[in-house]
Amino acid sequence: MKGLVIKNTGSWYQVRTDQEEIFECKIKGNLRLKDIKSTNPIAVGDFVEFTAIEEKVGLISGIYDRKNYIIRRSSNLSKQSHILAANLDLVVLVITIRYPETSTIFIDRFIASAEAYNVPACILINKIDLYTEDEMQYAEALKTLYESIGYPVFMLSALKPDTFDTFKQFLTGKTILISGNSGVGKSTLINAILPESLAKTGEISSYHNKGTHTTTFSQLYQLENGAKLIDTPGIKGFGTVDMEIDEISHYFKEIFKTSKKCRFTNCTHVHEPGCAVLSAVENHQISLSRYQSYLSILSDFETGKYR
Ligand SMILES: Nc1nc2c(ncn2[C@@H]2O[C@H](COP(=O)(O)OP(=O)(O)OP(=O)(O)O)[C@@H](O)[C@H]2O)c(=O)[nH]1
Ligand SMILES: [Mg+2]
Ligand SMILES: [Zn+2]
C-alpha cells in the first residue's frame, strides 16, 4: 500500500492512506536508505510503500523519490542532521516582532536555506494584535523589504480569524512546512485555520514548565482546501547545509542579481574594487540588514563552522 507519512515520533511513523486510514508503522529492518547521515531516514511528507501486518499496524518497505526536503543540523558543528519535512511546495516562516523577537539574521538564514533547497518561501508576521504603533511600523517595513525582494509577506494574528483569509487562500492545494522560532505561534495558527479543532494545541504539544505548549514532533494536518500543513518544533538556528561558500550570494536574490555588475566574476562583495553589491548597500538599494546576514553566513564558512 502507498501512504503519506503524517507524523514521526522516533522509530514510529504514522502513515495515512488515500482512504484516510491511519497506520502506525515501523521501518522494515533490511530497508536500504540512501540518507544514512540523517537521524530520521523517513520524514513527514514522505510517500512510502508499506504492508499491513496487523490492524492499523504496518511495515514500511520502501520510500518514493522526493521532490525536495529540508534538513536541519542539530547544531552548527554537528554532523548529525534531521530531515524536517519532504515534498514541499512552500515553507512559511512565522516570525514575531516581539514575544519573542525574531532576528533578521535568522529570517535571512532561513530564507537562504529554503532557496538552497529549492523550496519557495514566504513570511508570516504573527501576533499583530500585540504590537505598539512603532512595532507595527517596523513590521510594515519588514513587509516592504521582503516583498521587494520577491517573498510574499502576510501579517496577521492567530487569535483573530478575520485576519487570515488571504493567507489561507494562498495555501490552497500546497504542502507547506510551518517553521520559525519557538513561541511565535505556529501551532496556534494551524489550530485556528483547521476545519474542526483537529489540532488542539494541548493535544499536539507537550506542556512546558514555563506554561507554554511546545511542539516536539512534526505533524501534518490537512485543510479542506487541499492544503497540507506541517507543524514543526520551534528552531533556534537553521544550519546552512549543502551550501558552498561561493554559492551563498546565489541564495540572496537581490545580492545575486546585483552581483552580475561586479567588476570581478569571483567577487565576494566584501572588499573588492568595482563591487556593485557594496555600492548598492551604500546607496540603500540593498538593505544593510540583508547584507549583514550575508556576511554572517560568509564568516561562518571562514571560521570553519560549516566545514
Ligand atoms: N496575542 C497573541 N498570542 C498568540 C498569537 N499566536 C500565538 N499566541 C500565543 O503564543 C504562545 C505560543 O504559541 P504556540 O502556538 O505554542 O507557538 P509555537 O510556535 O507552536 O511554539 P513551539 O511549538 O515551541 O515551536 C501561546 O501562548 C499562544 O497563545 C497571536 O497572534 N496573538
Ligand atoms: Mg508548536
Ligand atoms: Zn561584488
TrEMBL record:
GO terms for molecular function: GTP binding; GTPase activity; metal ion binding; rRNA binding. GO terms for biological process: ribosome biogenesis. Residues 77-238 form the CP-type G domain. InterPro entries: G_CP_dom, NA-bd_OB-fold, P-loop_NTPase, Ribosome_biogen_GTPase_RsgA, RsgA_GTPase_dom, RsgA_N. Residues 86-236 form the EngC GTPase domain. Pfam families: RsgA_GTPase, RsgA_N. CDD domains: S1_YloQ_GTPase, YjeQ_EngC. Keywords: Cytoplasm, GTP-binding, Hydrolase, Metal-binding, Nucleotide-binding, Ribosome biogenesis, RNA-binding, rRNA-binding, Zinc. Its EC number is 3.6.1.-. This is Small ribosomal subunit biogenesis GTPase RsgA. It comes from bioreactor metagenome.
